[in-house]
């Protein structure tokens, strides 16, 4: 059985399909360990029909082959490590942030940027969607991006600003190194961002489940960005167990996408206030502790004093650290400090009312 096959691709009655979707069953994996009685209870579909659905889904695979086919040969941990290390990361245009992450945003992994409103999560996503397209002659991945906007905060004019700055930078490098200019243009960058707007969690889940086919057709895709993963899951839900199940399914899909296609998954997440008995309340990433295991790398963006900071909060290989960054007209950058003058080269004029400190 192909665990990621979408249930909507099976010959199941449309009324049953919508009941399965509403109850959070989207792919074959979701039904794997269920008994007909459990499925019937969760979906409201009759017991006999549930038996039929389980028989159908659990006996067929997407290419018609049977479920007991031989597994893929094992790959040694060393081979896996070498393979991952051979894939260059996506730079962010902030050297401090890149160094903190071990060179940039890695492929084959899920990186989550969390932070309060206005701190720069969307700007970070746009920067990464542009930077993934930097031509290989400049050390870039020459890839493309899938950008999933759940909040309606994607502004194409802003992407144009960031793209222009990146194109100018590449052309300047080309002049200095004697390469041909014009390898990357604003138009090529905009064409390389495949944009989806998802208005609710069902649209988001459906989009994520269709991504494998989309990426197969667009093999240059090297990053999938979701800004933000939290938005629909924080507001549309009363049923917390359904929310947990859907988030778990989505996390599994992201992990599979990252490893199978060797791409980076970049998610943004909001912050929420956590109250613990006997302790001060503090801001923590939203969606709860179990979601916290979904991402391999977690970076918290926050304000302190007059600066924006990125705090590497979770990483499998890098130690916890913090770097300041700024958002300029051209996008995400390091803060450049001159010895005689402690002011920044470009002002980053965030209104103080939006600034929040994370503890
Ligand atoms: P939410 O989506 O509300 O949670 O916030 P966010 O973390 O996504 O913030 P976002 O990335 O939208 O950052 C907004 C900030 O980026 C603004 O307050 C500005 O400081 C900065 N910014 C946005 N556009 C520009 C621009 O064109 N020029 C400059 N210099 N800064 C910009
Ligand atoms: Mg945003």
TrEMBL record:
<protein>
    <recommendedName>
        <fullName>DNA repair protein RAD51 homolog 3</fullName>
    </recommendedName>
</protein>
<feature type="region of interest" description="Disordered">
    <location>
        <begin position="336"/>
        <end position="359"/>
    </location>
</feature>
<dbReference type="GO" id="GO:0000400">
    <property type="term" value="F:four-way junction DNA binding"/>
</dbReference>
<dbReference type="InterPro" id="IPR013632">
    <property type="entry name" value="Rad51_C"/>
</dbReference>
<dbReference type="GO" id="GO:0008821">
    <property type="term" value="F:crossover junction DNA endonuclease activity"/>
</dbReference>
<keyword id="KW-0067">ATP-binding</keyword>
<keyword id="KW-0539">Nucleus</keyword>
<dbReference type="GO" id="GO:0140664">
    <property type="term" value="F:ATP-dependent DNA damage sensor activity"/>
</dbReference>
<dbReference type="InterPro" id="IPR016467">
    <property type="entry name" value="DNA_recomb/repair_RecA-like"/>
</dbReference>
<dbReference type="GO" id="GO:0033063">
    <property type="term" value="C:Rad51B-Rad51C-Rad51D-XRCC2 complex"/>
</dbReference>
<dbReference type="Pfam" id="PF08423">
    <property type="entry name" value="Rad51"/>
</dbReference>
<dbReference type="GO" id="GO:0007131">
    <property type="term" value="P:reciprocal meiotic recombination"/>
</dbReference>
<keyword id="KW-0227">DNA damage</keyword>
<keyword id="KW-0234">DNA repair</keyword>
<dbReference type="GO" id="GO:0005657">
    <property type="term" value="C:replication fork"/>
</dbReference>
<dbReference type="GO" id="GO:0033065">
    <property type="term" value="C:Rad51C-XRCC3 complex"/>
</dbReference>
<dbReference type="InterPro" id="IPR052093">
    <property type="entry name" value="HR_Repair_Mediator"/>
</dbReference>
<dbReference type="GO" id="GO:0000707">
    <property type="term" value="P:meiotic DNA recombinase assembly"/>
</dbReference>
<feature type="domain" description="RecA family profile 1">
    <location>
        <begin position="86"/>
        <end position="271"/>
    </location>
</feature>
<dbReference type="InterPro" id="IPR027417">
    <property type="entry name" value="P-loop_NTPase"/>
</dbReference>
<keyword id="KW-0547">Nucleotide-binding</keyword>
<dbReference type="InterPro" id="IPR020588">
    <property type="entry name" value="RecA_ATP-bd"/>
</dbReference>
<dbReference type="GO" id="GO:0005524">
    <property type="term" value="F:ATP binding"/>
</dbReference>
